[in-house]
Amino acid sequence: MKYNRYREEQNREDEERVKLNPFQLCYFIYTAIYLTFCFDRWKSFGMVLDPHSFVILSVIALIFTAAVLLYNRKYEKRAACRAACYIIAALAVLSFIVYLW
Length: 101
Description:
By secondary structure, the chain is mainly alpha-helical. 78% of the residues lie in helices and 0% in strands.
């Protein structure tokens, strides 16, 4: 009886681990790069974006954010993955708002 309860808890824990699919992983990487541009971290490497290029990156980030959120709503069952995507999406949208306005 105790063994079955342990297995059930272990299965529940395995389901809650964050295992991102390639689409979500690409979103995390793109958003991390986008956020570093928002905080001007690339200036130390000599990379500065003109406003037009940054607007294009921002629009891509917002479209990518909407696509990931829709995907999570329809297909993602793990709460940890959904929560991680919500946090990254909130950071992307907030940085878009703060940087462009």
